[in-house]
C-alpha cells in the first residue's frame, strides 16, 4: 500500500512535470516542495462499501507513480457522473481510516452551502486518514486529502489522529516578522482553537466554519485544474493525470497570471522561506513587519500564501470570497514582531495588518475573476459591488487587541475582556491548510 510520503512526493514531482517547474505545493498539493515524512495509508477503506466504486477507490487514491494514475473511466470526476450531486453521491467517493471520519464529514456536508456539493464535482474522491497533515490536492489521483484534525468532536475521536506537527510549522522562524491570519465574525474569532493534546471536546457547530474554509480552498485547486465548463469534454480513456495535463493552458491560475498577475518579487522570495523552507538571505532577515506589510498592501494578493505559487493565489482568493459570501466572515491578515518564543498576545505587535482585504480594489478585481471561473453558475456581482474597503489595524498594538474593530487599547475594560477570551491562538501562525 502507498505511503502518504510517496503519494505527496509523487505529486510534487508531477507539479514540476505538469506545471513547467513552478513553486511547488500549490501547483499540485497545496503544500511546498518539501515532503512531509508521513507514515502509511494502509488502513483506509471505502466509507460506503456498497458503492459501485468501492472496489477501485482505495487503489486509485493510493497511486504512487504516474503509471498508476487511474483512468477517468475507472474513477471519474464526480461531475462526469452527476450534474447535481447530493450527499449520498459524494459519500460514495469517500475513503477513510476510521468510520467516524466519514460519518462526521457527511454531517458537516449537510450544514454547508450547496456550492460545496457543486465544487466537489471537480474531484474523483475524498480521502480522510489519521495520518494526513497537511490537507492537499493532487492531479495524480484527482482527489482531495483532508486532515481529520478539522473533524473530531470527542476525545475518543481525537485519540485516533496523528499528533505530528505540520512539517511547515517552523518555516520562516529566522525572519524578523511573523505572518498571521485568522477568520473573524462580528469582531470575534469565527471559530476557536482546540489542540489535539488537550481534553476539550467540540460540538458540530465548532467545526463547520473551519471545514468550510478548508474545503473551499482544496476544491478551488480541484476546479482550477479541471474547470467546470470543460470537464464534460474530457477524454475519459485518459488517466486523471493525463487529462489534467491536456487542459493545462485552460487552468484558471494560468489565465489569472496572464491577465492580472502579482508583481512583488520580494514577496515571492519570502514565500519560499515561509512556505517551502528556503534559507532566508541577509536582506530578507532584515525586513520588518511594517516593511513587508507595505509591499503586501501595494500588490493584489489577499494572503502571502498566494506568492508560493499561482495556484495558491487562486485558492486563497476563492476561499476568502466564499467565506465572506456565505457566512459574512472576514479574514484578518497581518505582519507582527517576531518574539523569541510564542507567548502572550502582547508580544506579537502589529507592524501592518487589515481586515477584509477582499474589499481592496485590486484584490476584489482578481477575486471576481477567479470566482466567475470556478463557479460560473453563480452571480456574485452584487456581492462584489457591495464590499466595503478593508479596515486597517493599528500599528504598535498587539495582534489580539486588534481583534476588535476599532481595536481595543491596553488598559481599557474592553481590552481586558478581549485578552481573557481571545488569547493568542497558535493556529494564527500555522502555514495555512
Written overview of the protein:
This protein has 433 residues and is α+β, with helices and mostly antiparallel strands. The chain contains 18 helices and ten strands. A five-stranded mixed β-sheet has the order 1-2-3-5-4, with helices on both faces. Strands 7-6-8-9-10 form a five-stranded antiparallel β-sheet. Strand 4 and strand 5 (143-146) form a beta hairpin. Helix 11 (252-259) packs across helix 15 (310-327) and helix 15 packs across helix 16. The longest helix has 18 residues, at 208-225. The model is unreliable at 5-39 and 413-422 (pLDDT under 50). Residues 1-21 form the signal peptide. Keywords: Signal.
Order of helices and strands: HHEHHHEHHEEEHEEHHHHHHHEEHHEH
How would you write the strand order of the largest sheet? 1-2-3-5-4
Strand content: 5-15%
In one word, what is the shape?
globular
**Total DSSP helices:** 18
Total number of domains = 2
Helix content: 25-40%
How many beta-strand segments? Answer: 10
Q: Which class best fits the helix and strand makeup?
A: alpha+beta
Rounded to the nearest angstrom, the distance between the terminal CA atoms is: 25 Å
Largest sheet: 5 strands, mixed
Keywords: Signal
